[in-house]
Amino acid sequence: RCFHFCKLPGRVMGIRLLRFTSVVIIVLLLVAGALTALLPTIKDDKLPNSRREPKTQSQSALDSFTLIMQTYNRTDLLLKLLNHYQAIPHLHKVIVVWNNIGEKTPEEMWNSLGPHPVPVVFKVQTINRMRNRLQNFPDVETKAVLMMDDDTLVSAHDLAFAFSVWQQFPEHIVGFVPRKHISTPSGVYSYGSFELQNPGFGNGDQYSMVLIGAAFFHSGYLEDFQRQPEAVYALIDETQNCDDIAMNFLVAKHTGKPSGVFVKPVDIRNLEKDTNSGYSGMWHRAEHLLQRSYCVNKLVNIYDGMPLKYSNIMISQFGFPNYANHKNKM
Amino acid sequence: RCFHFCKLPGRVMGIRLLRFTSVVIIVLLLVAGALTALLPTIKDDKLPNSRREPKTQSQSALDSFTLIMQTYNRTDLLLKLLNHYQAIPHLHKVIVVWNNIGEKTPEEMWNSLGPHPVPVVFKVQTINRMRNRLQNFPDVETKAVLMMDDDTLVSAHDLAFAFSVWQQFPEHIVGFVPRKHISTPSGVYSYGSFELQNPGFGNGDQYSMVLIGAAFFHSGYLEDFQRQPEAVYALIDETQNCDDIAMNFLVAKHTGKPSGVFVKPVDIRNLEKDTNSGYSGMWHRAEHLLQRSYCVNKLVNIYDGMPLKYSNIMISQFGFPNYANHKNKM
């Protein structure tokens, strides 16, 4: 009989078998777990998005946007707008371009009133330039940029809808303020809005620009903007104007199509009158519109041609705010 | 001195020189003429289209469309509508799908009242089927089809604009009548319009179909429609309904995107009440809407999944009819 020695191999075999079986079971469980995680979610209809996920830095670069807001001499409006815009759906980060040279940013006060839904970065500038907001900020992590003037209030509904439209037209400037140029028999261009005559292509009016002071566009265009002819920067600095017209030229040239897609806003407001600073914005200068016509002609010179194209597409949100805003009296 | 002989060579030389010079001049003129003809027309802005060119068969296949209108028991409405539609800009040809089995078409009367702006072809049918209008008619020479019900009047302005929109979205059904499906916890789908609850993706409503009774779509889809499962034809024949829902399934499956783009009509009218025939259209049947819900579920079965996708894009024409229909109270 073989007690000690014989049992030992058996027990050893037994232990080895036990260990082996345990390892096999664990591996099988891990594999099963991995397979479950890889199962495709059923996505034939888009899943309802009724519950808001907490905003984190890990929001996909495609599903969120960066707000860039340049500010000069209207910090009260800036802070009022920041309270509104910091809570817009799909916002990833806010970049405040601080054109108040030599003045402290409100960063301390901002932090003391935290926490905030998203990070806000104050970019202190050294010269008060209109085109500061068009720098290629490394802070931008998203594909989309929302650019807003520091006196413009657009509702969250409008912004959420316009962002979804931008996602369908990512190479265009998708925004709320359409403008146009017209050509005249002399070959000189003029800049304006609905008050100018129609360009004459069938019924109705046309627009050839969407202003970037209330619009979404691809962050790649900020990079492109750094590679423009020097004369473009000189023009914008000379007029402290027209950076938006230049951007529309850039985009139109790049796409060969109309630069912008106009989304009709339900609720857009100008808060200029509400500021305590008394400062009321560049567009009140007497020469503002004449400058912009001047810029159009200069840019045609610089770019050796007129790249802007006309569009008459106006986009609204189906069934909002009125659930039957498309109904017809048939 | 050398009179006769010496002059002769000179004169001969002179004649040769004259001939040579003439030939050179003629060649130069021909070359100049050819160069002028080859000069590129300046096309940085689209040229105004204010003067209508006479409609010819040579209109580019991309710049014109074919109207397909199926008709049953409403010849008075048909003829009224033909007078209107025959003059729509960019129309290439009209195809009338004649579902009045055994009855003579009004072709003789039509010809006696000529000339007409475009050719009108009467396609006599042998069975009165709803899906007759979705045959792949060889008469269609254009990329675009405009399909209209024989009781629907849409203004020329709306049609011209919607055609221009289709040219920007050629793979979609671009039309004036949006509808949707909704899914329910039981997994059974329901068909309807604004009266149904929103599918729940953010604010406002969504549509997932654009009906083909007043819409532009690519003529290639008529070809695709011939290659659908037999069960689709059986369903349409069984209900004498739902051909348009089937077409939306087809397009959504093909593109992986929402099948339709909704253009909000300014002036769309239903002329049913104006007919002398007393016939008032299939949609008045009690079971019409229930049938359409039934069709949605059957088609999901046939296609083994729900391909329809939601959209909330509503397109209107900028600055028409009101030249400032986009103006905001800023």
TrEMBL record, chains A, B:
Documented EC number(s): 2.4.1.223
Bilayer topology term: Single-pass type II membrane protein
Alphabetical UniProt keywords: Disulfide bond, Glycoprotein, Glycosyltransferase, Manganese, Membrane, Metal-binding, Signal-anchor, Transferase, Transmembrane, Transmembrane helix
Transmembrane regions listed in the UniProt entry: 20-42
Cofactor(s) the protein requires to work: Mn(2+)
Domain of life of the organism encoding this protein: Eukaryota
GO cellular component terms, A-Z: endoplasmic reticulum membrane
First-listed, main subcellular location of the protein, grouped into a coarse class: endoplasmic reticulum
Catalytic activity: 3-O-(beta-D-GlcA-(1->3)-beta-D-Gal-(1->3)-beta-D-Gal-(1->4)-beta-D-Xyl)-L-seryl-[protein] + UDP-N-acetyl-alpha-D-glucosamine = 3-O-(alpha-D-GlcNAc-(1->4)-beta-D-GlcA-(1->3)-beta-D-Gal-(1->3)-beta-D-Gal-(1->4)-beta-D-Xyl)-L-seryl-[protein] + UDP + H(+)
InterPro entries named in the record: Glycosyltrans_GT2/GT47 (IPR052427), GT64_dom (IPR015338), Nucleotide-diphossugar_trans (IPR029044)
One example of a Gene Ontology biological process annotation: N-acetylglucosamine metabolic process
Cellular compartment(s): Endoplasmic reticulum membrane
Pfam families associated with the record: Glyco_transf_64
Record GO terms (molecular function): alpha-1,4-N-acetylgalactosaminyltransferase activity; glucuronyl-galactosyl-proteoglycan 4-alpha-N-acetylglucosaminyltransferase activity; metal ion binding
Start and end residues of each Glycosyl transferase domain: 65-320
Function: Glycosyltransferase required for the biosynthesis of heparan-sulfate and responsible for the alternating addition of beta-1-4-linked glucuronic acid (GlcA) and alpha-1-4-linked N-acetylglucosamine (GlcNAc) units to nascent heparan sulfate chains.
The family this protein is said to belong to: Belongs to the glycosyltransferase 47 family.
PANTHER family xrefs: EXOSTOSIN-LIKE 2, SYNTHASE CPS1, PUTATIVE (AFU_ORTHOLOGUE AFUA_7G02500)-RELATED
Name used for this protein in its record: Exostosin-like 2
Source species of the chain: Malurus elegans
Gene: Extl2
